[in-house]
From TrEMBL:
Domain of life: Archaea
Protein's UniProt keywords contain Transmembrane: yes
UniProt keyword annotation of Lipid metabolism present: no
Organism: Methanococcus voltae (strain ATCC BAA-1334 / A3)
Protein name: Uncharacterized protein
Stretches assigned to the T26-6p second immunoglobulin-like domain: 320-453
Cited Gene3D superfamilies: 2.60.40.2050, pT26-6p, five-helical bundle domain
Membrane-spanning parts: 648-665
Boundaries of every T26-6p C-terminal domain copy: 461-605
All copies of domain T26-6p immunoglobulin-like, residue ranges: 121-255
Keyword terms, alphabetized: Membrane, Transmembrane, Transmembrane helix
Amino acid sequence: MKRLIALLTLLLLVSPTYAVDVNNPVDWVLAPMKFITNPLFTVTEYAVAGFYEAYDYMNSLVFGEDVALMLNNTVVNQTLEEKRDFKEYDFTTDSKQLLDLLKEKTASEMVVYTVDTSGNNDITTRLYAPDKIYGYSAFPTKLSITKCTGDSFHVTNVKIYVKSNNNSEIKYYLLDKTYNQTFNQLENAYDSEYEIEGSDTVDTIMKAPDTHSVRVRDFTANANVDYSDIEEILSSNVEPFEIYYEVHGHIEKWVEYTVTGDDGVQREVRKRQDIQVDHLGNTNGLDGRIKNGNYMIGSFSKGSLPVDYLESDGDKLIPYESVCQGSTSNILSVLWSSPVNAVNRSPDMRYVYIDNCGELFTRAGVPAKIYDDVAIVTLRETTNHEIEISSKKAIQKGYFTSVDPIQIYTSYTANNEEDLLDFTTYGIVYGEITRTDGVKIPVWTINKPTIFVYGSERTVAGQTLEELDDLRSLSEWDESSRERVLNILVSTNNSLNNKIATAENYKEKAEIASSSKAIDCADKAIENYKEGTVLLTELHNSFIKLYESTDYNNENKIEEVDDTLEIVRVYEVAGDEFLKASKLYTYGKDEQAEQVEKDAKDLTEKSAVPIFGNGGLIDNTNQFIECWILKIPIIGESLNNLIKNIPFGYVTLITLGLIIVIYQNRSSVSKSYRRYKRRY
């Protein structure tokens, strides 16, 4: 008997962690395979399931048929909002935190570069530039020129430029600095010239070779974006390059000699005969300092909410995870959007970008100000792979400050949702840094957020929840109210069955396209829709029992209906997303499909059962026992209230009882242990 008590106690403690349905034939088919791989776990799992079935049977025998609405065991135990984990964000604080973190990661310092030199060696040169250059960025460059002898060195011209290793013919962002000098022919001397007495520096701004900046400028100028162009830019890499420089001048040299004039008089002559200096240099191995301009920013990547949530969540802002590319050492950006994104809706957005040039340019002697234009563009792609502009907003900003948030919006417009494949939104900033010689250096960034756009209609479950609004305030449901609920549940179930039929059509298209991933996603969509219909059928059957009873009290009934419909909505949205993934796979949009499929899987993924807290192991065990105690006549409620005041309630009592049983039988336990040791 004591062993039986201990076993039942163990079953009570572990039972909430198992979710086997003994009425499901699939689970029984899988049972032999489970037993082979893990016999102890399988026996325990099915014993617990049988224990619950026995409980239900005994409950009906002792207390009669229960017409209360009971939720079936399901892996989904949270609402869609809870599943998506839409926490409250502080737009200003979180934007700064996200961008400051990235700013810290991309920070650079000026260092001496390794250079190869040729030509005249009467001078030496050193080149300074940042230790890290991210993407298609402008960067400060400092050329130090030092004379090697005591003679004066006069510089006449300095050139600094960038050459791509792939095309050495083009000199990018050429600085051609000429030093004015005046030579007096009569005096055979310079009236004015620039002299380097010891060492001198030439400070300027260079940039990585960039064949994309003109197209990015056009994107912001007229907001007309070509999909293939912008995607090519996003996935591009900076060409390897080196910095080249030329120093031209002359070293001041004098010769002295004696000449005899026509009059026979000798005179000392001192004449200037300068040595021409042509000193060339270039960096070696700069590609080791070039970092990819791609970066991820934003802390949210779990999809969106359908239009059901427009009233409750439409005004919120979420920092969507984005893929970015561009002049990352100069501009960083993060894009915020409403979490409610649906066809023919225009969600609010905040596009925040910062000047990432920082103090590095100032310390290098070339403070930079960026004059910028901004655009938010959304493209719409159809199943015919025609790509059109759904929305475009262009703003000419002028010089921007350290942090520039722009309040803006986009629009997801479509006349025919059946032909719609996908929406893609881009945030684009194009700017220019004006160098001291008047040359404009282009800098830019492109931000592509991962935003899932739902259809224009509310979910079936969401519409049902709205239809039940006026019934929530009723303390009692009369026969007409019950009949109305029954009709609504039947209609909801029919609508989900229509979605199953749609998913089956998509599966046929996927089979024609021979896309195994599309077929799999269509199957998962059907599976999730069916999960919703099962819950609705159970709820409907419970209501039929309620309809036949004389219990008109509405207490707890509407909550049970709402809870069930919230879970149905999660399954429905998961089905919708699997269906969208199937469509994307079918039409070759694998990258987008993988993200949508992942979001759908996350919705129906079984949550780990915690030990403590609401919904935890201890809480579930206490609720399970409480159901029995409350049905004890007269004393049940008082006893339950008393035990609930004990920390951890019934679990504490069971644990103490188990400890007492083991303690009282410690001698037999010890003997059994010694026999076990001798045997093994």
